[in-house]
Specification:
By secondary structure, the chain is an alpha+beta fold. It contains 15 helices and 26 strands. The strands form seven sheets. Strands 2, 16, 17, 18, 19, 20, 21 and 22 form an eight-stranded mixed beta sheet that branches. A four-stranded mixed beta sheet has the order 4-15-14-13, covered by helices on one side.
Length: about 525
């Protein structure tokens, strides 16, 4: 997740992102519905749902999913071992996860009778294969680092067809919080593939989620159909289609015309859609950070005083108004960790707006008449507004900013180029969930999603130490040092913690059971239904 959504370009979040990468976020807050009403009539089986997404999926395989689009589709196509919402754990493919007394072994028990979409049994062998694929450096999954402890990888032992022991080389406070992000892949499909990410078998994916793959037309749509043997019960809808809609204005028009029934919307569009009376507007805490990143591949960006000067020149409250219309949808951010993440602290340098301080730092750095390039996604309304704001605001300290709007795919590709020097600044966002170890893929020196390209061996050690530290006070102190380091070095400028806003046609019920969720909008589409 991984800049999640936005998100190889905008959430790993990748992303993980991201993670994810786009790993996906696993901690949700209670939804706040604006102008929503329960759909009239009773539930019925059948019908379809068309969801707008910003781009094509990168690869329909969950061990590589780090962007918002791929994670959203994978949420319906694949099933997780379990989910975590706030402090509540809900088992899905697994029926239990039990740590040993010494916390070095976790025993995972699968439910009985699990099958893949092609009818093959889903067993402990698939879980072990998935984890071994992640740990195989030749398969280059960004999840790998989260299951390697002081250079020693996690190992797995098959107990029986439904039971796996995960054996840790040392106690890790982060293990369970990272395992929640893993969606198993089928061994019988991918065994023997030299490069799973590039395998042609991803073009006809076999999952275990509520909907199975039907058709994909690049640049147009991905269609999934109901999987009657889903472990959570047969879905009520016959099909779900993810329609590629890169232009947000065209997507909103299609939403109003009934061609699309659900999409994540920009806050600037809330009132227009709400006033039609045809949509439930779901507003919920996403645990998302909107930020600006400094590209340290560029010589002038290597000067800390320049980065700090830019931070002091900007006003986060003004940026929120420009990008999100008001503080109703976002709040100023100080830390790189979001408020829903364990050990998040605001005890860091906040860089309150101070033009005199900005000019003083630029003078100390010995730079003048600075010209910078700012890259962002051209279809992202908040980023477009932020870009215009930054351009105007930095003029006040003598910095000329050239705007560099890019197609979401081009932006994602340039962002992932570890030698990229095409721009100095860029915007992004990520959602990483409650486990802080998930953030390592965005900040450690050699990670692909380290968009600032900041390299610091001592900083990397803090992440490694924090992942395995079981004393909560000591672990909290390590993550505090991590947050303070990024703030002091100013490699990433946190702008705002933002909310997710989804418009859903009022003819659909079951939203509460489906559960609003960061990145993917709804956790379980099998619970949605069309009313009579």
């Amino acid at each position: 997740m991984k800049r999640r959504n936005m998100w190889t370009a905008a959430i790993l979040a990748l992303v993980i992102l991201t993670m994810s990468a786009c790993g996906s976020a696993s901690s949700d807050k209670k939804a706040e519905d604006q102008g929503s009403t329960a759909p009239a009539g009773t539930a019925k089986n059948g019908g379809s749902l068309v969801i707008a997404v910003q781009d094509d999926p990168k690869v329909l395989n969950p061990i590589y999913a780090g962007d918002r689009v791929t994670l959203t589709i994978d949420q319906a196509l694949y099933a997780p071992l379990f989910n975590v919402n706030g402090d509540k754990k809900t088992f899905v493919l697994a029926e239990s996860l039990t740590p040993s007394a010494d916390n070095l072994t976790y025993t995972l028990k699968l439910r009985e009778g699990l099958t893949w979409h092609d009818g093959q049994p889903l067993t402990a062998d698939d879980i072990i294969f998935t984890m071994n694929s992640i740990l195989d450096e030749k398969q280059h999954s960004f999840f790998r680092g989260s299951f390697v402890y002081d250079g020693k990888p996690l190992t797995m032992k098959k107990v029986d067809d439904r039971t796996v022991d995960f054996v840790l080389p040392k106690v890790s406070a982060a293990f369970e919080g990272m395992l929640v992000q893993i969606f198993p892949i089928p061994k019988h499909i991918f065994e023997g593939e030299a490069d799973i990410e590039k395998s042609t078998k991803n073009s006809n994916p076999v999952g275990s989620g509520p909907f199975k793959f039907k058709e994909y037309r690049a640049g147009e749509y991905v269609t999934l159909e109901r999987f009657d043997k889903y472990v959570g019960g047969a879905p009520k809808l016959d099909s779900v289609t993810y329609r590629v809609a890169k232009d947000p204005n065209a997507a909103n028009l299609a939403l109003q015309n009934g061609e699309i029934q659900m999409r994540m919307i920009d806050t600037q569009d809330v009132n227009t859609l709400k006033n039609t009376g045809n949509f439930n507007i779901l507003t919920y805490l996403e645990g998302r950070l909107s930020y600006m990143v400094f590209n340290l591949n560029v010589d002038v960006m290597k000067k800390k005083e320049v980065r700090q000067a830019i931070a002091y020149a900007l006003d986060k409250n003004e940026m929120i108004t420009a990008a999100y219309t008001s503080g109703e949808y976002a709040e100023p951010a100080a830390s790189i960790l979001t408020p829903d993440t364990l050990y998040q602290t605001n005890d860091v340098e906040k860089y309150d707006h101070n033009l005199d301080k900005a000019k003083e730092l630029l003078a100390q750095a010995g730079v003048s008449n600075l010209k910078l390039k700012l890259a962002y996604t051209n279809s992202n309304k908040p980023q477009t507004s932020l870009a215009l704001y930054v351009q105007q605001k930095l003029k006040e300290v003598g910095i000329e900013v050239e705007l560099m709007p890019l197609d979401i795919t081009a932006f994602g590709n340039k962002s992932l180029d570890m030698n990229n020097k095409e721009y100095d600044l860029s915007f992004g966002g990520y959602i990483m969930g409650f486990e802080p170890d998930a953030y390592r893929t965005l900040y450690m020196s050699n990670e692909a999603y380290n968009y600032s390209h900041y390299k610091n061996a001592d900083f990397d050690k803090l992440w490694d130490q924090a992942a395995v530290q079981t004393d909560t006070a000591k672990r909290g102190e390590l993550y505090k040092q991590i947050q303070q380091t990024v703030a002091n070095e100013m490699t990433v400028f946190p702008i705002a913690y933002t909310k997710g806003v989804v418009a859903l046609d009022k003819r659909y019920g079951g939203v509460e059971e489906a559960v609003t969720k960061p990145v993917v909008m709804l956790e379980d589409l099998s619970k949605l239904y069309v009313t009579k």
